[in-house]
């Protein structure tokens, strides 16, 4: 135990004492917060864009204006639905929804919401695009405005003209020239296309003798789907964001697990390569039993990852608490809070810890054993290459899991012990059959024991007999020779 | 009480079908200094690694303090491996303390002893410097300190003098003597015969995995014929006059001026005086006559040469 403790301690301190460790400790939560906040921030900071339409007929311009208005209404509706999940806001949001259904304006709706929710509502209801009258009659005249050499007059003051759509309706087909300096952004172009397409279809129906009102009514026909779960109490079976969050949380956890296991397995790999190439192993081998060296390294690096996870967990918990108390809630922050509260589900945390231990022992042992055969990182890369490809499979599978965590492919993959920790973690909120949970866990445990046993043999060959990267080839040849003899 | 500290009994070991050690058999007595000599690839390091239980032999057995090597027994051993290395990012004293603690020492004692040894090697100032900042020679000394910091009863040093300047070689020689005086048993391998000649009570010579000599330095020196170098104006040389008194007479240059002369290898039982006497009696006009001092280097070359010839035939 003395050897194991001392080796684990040295391993732990060798990482913890590096600036890289502290940088990882600090930057990962920072990046996670940034990752969550960045889309919201981008959305919040994207300015309202002004565009114009030159349409001699005027029909299509009106269609676009109507589309903008209905899109705005849809946005308000979505925001109100999201705000419904906000703790303590249920009654106020219900009143605001009723006002919205009655056709109330934005200010009335805002009044119905509390101060926190109304801030989020204000941010969400800001229009992305505003249609303005054309400052010039043709493309030539619009060019200086589009190049920002001239500004357009709007009720909000002088603004840049973001885009212009010029209609040619002289022929059978409607031609639209879309002018903008931003040649990659496609949402406005899409909005114009959809609005014009609906108008063209509506006109075609009219020409066929079907009244416009009927066409509009037909176009408006859309089912209201309410998601209900039989697992919830009758009368309260409606599925809310809070119900769906655990599925996403589990997938996020599985991604984190994958990343952490690979980061720390990578640490083990570089550590053993350092010891082998730095000729430290001979000194170690006369000072400590080989199993203590192997286990000491595994335990030391596991302690590093536990430190990281604990620090991140505590930071996450503190941030969640602070966010709940201090931050005004928007749609994104509501999801973030729900995600954090789902993450604190003890069942998921226990599963995460269990899968981490076995995943880490499996991959850590493999990386340690392979590392013991390598003199340099270049050699290790050669050996690891095919393995890395195999290990990308759970990553791809997790992308599936976001869309359909009950997919049969995930069910099959979860029985492959190398993938079990990640796939099963993602599957857990779907309540997989008990046989899947117990079966995959047993297979994973047995495989972990076997992998550790095999890794110890390879490690022994690498450290004591100086076996190299051709170890497996030699082993395979020897087995073949033995078989040929018998 | 068992006086045998370390022994290898009929050890054989092959790697990929190639014999590295063949029927090696020896034991070390307490308090002795033994030199383990041999050319590159002779099997010295492999033998030491087998003795310490790092490698399992194909045949034979290794005993440490009378028993197969265990980690409890290895706590009483200090080992300087041939392939040296320390954790480059660790501080010097911390690295020494780490290995001392692995050998069962308490932190406080390890720090004190480590610091004392650093001072002795004039390295007190680098105790808190990282290993990667040290020169090769300094790192070598630090590695030696890690091997002996826990006051081991058996010290095995694989090529300890390589990489050290003459001053530090002298310090290490004194340290080895001191370790032995304090009761430790020392076994070291080396290519530098002068160290073995000065330090060892006993030497063992290995060639192609086989022990080809085992004895004291004096016995080793006796393994090669004594010789004398002489210079004469006689063109035909002294061979005819010396006759059976010599094993061989061959022309050879000698001295700093590369003076041309003759080397006479004495036959067993022949005295240098006999050679001088027959030369004078035989009318050899001697201009110089100088008995040659035998060196372990000559023994090494002679025995290894013999072994290689025997192996090839």
Describe the secondary structure blueprint for this structure:
The complex is a heterodimer of chains A (486) and B (313).
Chain A: H1 2-16, H2 19-45, E1 49-54, H3 59-83, H4 90-101, H5 106-112, H6 115-124, E2 129-132, H7 139-146, E3 152-154, E4 157-159, E5 161-168, E6 175-180, H8 187-207, H9 212-220, H10 241-277, H11 281-285, H12 290-326, H13 331-343, H14 346-371, H15 377-391, H16 393-403, H17 408-413, H18 420-427, H19 434-464, H20 471-485
Parallel strand pairs in A: 1-2, 1-5
Antiparallel strand pairs in A: 3-4, 5-6
Chain B: E1 4-15, E2 18-29, E3 33-37, H1 44-51, E4 59-64, H2 71-74, E5 77-80, H3 92-102, H4 107-120, H5 136-148, E6 154-158, H6 166-181, E7 185-190, H7 193-199, E8 202-207, E9 210-215, H8 217-222, E10 227-232, H9 239-242, E11 246-254, E12 259-266, H10 272-281, E13 286-292, H11 296-312
Parallel strand pairs in B: 3-7, 3-8, 5-6, 6-7
Antiparallel strand pairs in B: 1-2, 1-4, 8-9, 10-12, 10-13, 11-12
Backbone structural class of chain B? alpha/beta
Shape category of chain B: elongated
The SSE order of chain A reads HHEHHHHEHEEEEHHHHHHHHHHHHH
Task: Kindly provide the radius of gyration of chain B, computed on alpha-carbon positions and rounded to a whole number of angstroms.
Answer: 24 Å
- What are the low-pLDDT stretches of chain A, counting only 5+ consecutive residues below 50? 327-332
The N- to C-terminal Cα distance of chain B equals: 45 Å
Helix content of chain A: 55-70%
Question: How many strands, which pairing sense, and closed or not: the largest β-sheet of chain A?
Answer: 4 strands, mixed
Q: What is the β-strand count of chain B?
A: 13
Mean pLDDT of chain B: 84
Instruction: Evaluate the radius of gyration of chain A.
Output: 31 Å
